[in-house]
Design brief:
Length: 462
Amino acid sequence: MKNVAVILAGGIGSRLNAGVPKQFLKVAGMSVIEHTLTAFENHPEIDEIAVVANDAYHQKISSYILKNNYRKVKKILNGGAERHHSSLSAIEAYSMEGEDCNLIFHDAVRPLINPMIISNVVKALDNYKAVDVAIPSADTIIQVSSDDIITNIPPRKQLRRGQTPQAFRLSTIREAYQKALADPDFVTTDDCGVVVKYLPEVQVVVVNGEEANMKLTYTEDFYLLEKLFQLRSTDFYSYNLTNLEQEKLKDKVIVIFGASSGIGKDLMNICHNCKAKVYGFSRRMGNVDISNAEDVKSTLEKVFKEEGRIDMVVDTASVLCKEPLEVMTYEQIDEAININYRGMVIVAKESFRYLKETKGALLFYTSSSYTRGRMNYTIYSSTKCATVNFVQAIAEEWIPFGIKVNCINPERTKTPMRIKNFGIEDDSTLLKSEVVAEVSAKVLTSNITGQVVDVKIKNIKS
């Protein structure tokens, strides 16, 4: 059954008081609604997208579609004065097509929707006709009278805070609204409430949301949203390469810096097995130092002369010196900065002209220490924080060229660099470098850009 994402963008942003509807405010390089559309455009289980908005903004939305090359946005529909009018607009539009489908309603001003939530909603529609997304309430909820006297305190464990998406079989939500509109006292705040009230025989299942899936409503929300985008990360539902992803790597020309061991070496093997044309380089192999711009430039030129193009560039090279700053030598400091930061900048700068031609992909690696500096990791933590900011910045710069730039954020991983700094550890507490390499390959074949991709031990399927 076709899965249609309905992006509700009819709000006028009166509570934000920003002078423009909040869905068109810019954050992290794009408007809020562009982030939301991109999340659904890139999700493999979404077949089509419809945007419901005030007709005064249809032209602006059309410009976003052209700018971002959205392929799935098929309809821009008129909204209404109330939220449910926007839902009805989509229901009527798809009812005209004569076939049942799944409608997945999402607020345009929830741009941090996690792809895994979308996957779980779609999966729930296999067994239920109505799906809500909600999170537990961390606060005690009180019910009060008109004169602010507490009348009831419901048990908190039974309460949830609703989010979107909310998803339905078209036939189900259409029937619910038909009954609702016949009720002269009809009042609603969301679509699940309509089903619960007017189709009591239909079970509405709840899928877990997350705090980051916040709705931009007030001015304070905008500042929090900006910070969340800075720290934003994503994850994959499965870490295993699909047949389609393996096929996407076939015949691709891939350059990997830091390929002598660990994640880089494992990624080379994966790409070779997928019949990609892989070139690996590193200081240890004696053929390139990424902190030397001429080394990187000449290396890429040689690959280009050999193959005629470069599709993907990966930089896994990194230096960790786990010591207090006061005892580190300036040679150690310079090496870490030159490899972890300067080398990253050089690889990006020298790769640009090749990846622009192929609309290719560029991949770097950060660390869980990027979110907060750690004692004895002063240089390493700060360079890995710089990696995230750098990736987010150039991903935004290079959107017009079709270049995808991302970074992998693995949990503690068993690599030669880690063994050198930590010695023997319990393997059950460490990621295998092969797992991180496989996720890296998935990212290279994906359409995401500007993302920090988490790789976590707990998400590995046993």
